[in-house]
Amino acid sequence: MGLNDIKKELKKLDKDKLVDLVADLYKKNKSVKEFLEFYVSPNEQELFLKYKEKVYEAFFPKRGYRFKLSDGKKAISDFKKLEPSKELLAELMLFYAETGVEFTNEFGSIDEPFYNSISSVYSNALKLMAKENILDKFAERAKKIVDDTSDIGWGFNEELEVIYSDFYN
User: Fold this and answer.
1) Which pLDDT tens digit goes with each residue over 25-82?
2) Beta carbons within 8 Å of 96's beta carbon, 6+ residues apart
């Protein structure tokens, strides 16, 4: 069944049945609940802070000691699905890279997949910023990420320098 089939069936429902269906989805699906709450009361800053905390906790969990990069990337993906401003999305992506660098500088060398993840999100953040013409707003933070990796191995610093120089001359 496709989206058009769903739309046809939904159009057959009266308003009360449609409201009941949406309310049922709200109760049963966490992402639908979050989407509808944001739709009804779009507080981007509050939402951003919530997802920023999720990214931070992916590196520095409140319980346990294992970082989970997938949780940080999922937080970015989930935030993006809510369609926030591109600037806040770019800021969250940059925060992921900053937090990854902070984690490495605090705990020492990790591994190549870890650094590939940070580099990838950093690159995607700068691509988004370039597309949205907001590179200047984040120039200092983007440069600081590169500078803060000067003592990290695995070619991580060099990779970030190349990415940075592709966007900032």
Assistant:
1) 888 988 888 888 877 878 899 999 999 999 999 999 988 778 999 999 999 999 999 9
2) 55, 72, 73, 76, 118, 121, 125
C-alpha 153: how far from its chain's center?
Answer: 25
Cα 90 to Cα 20, 67, 72, 155, 167: the distances in Å are 36, 22, 14, 24, 14
Cβ count near 54 (within 10 Å): 17
Continuous segment of H or E residues that includes residue 96: helix 86-107
CB-count exposure of residue 45 (10 Å: 0-12, 13-18, 19+): exposed
pLDDT-based confidence at residue 22 (cuts at 50, 70, 90): confident
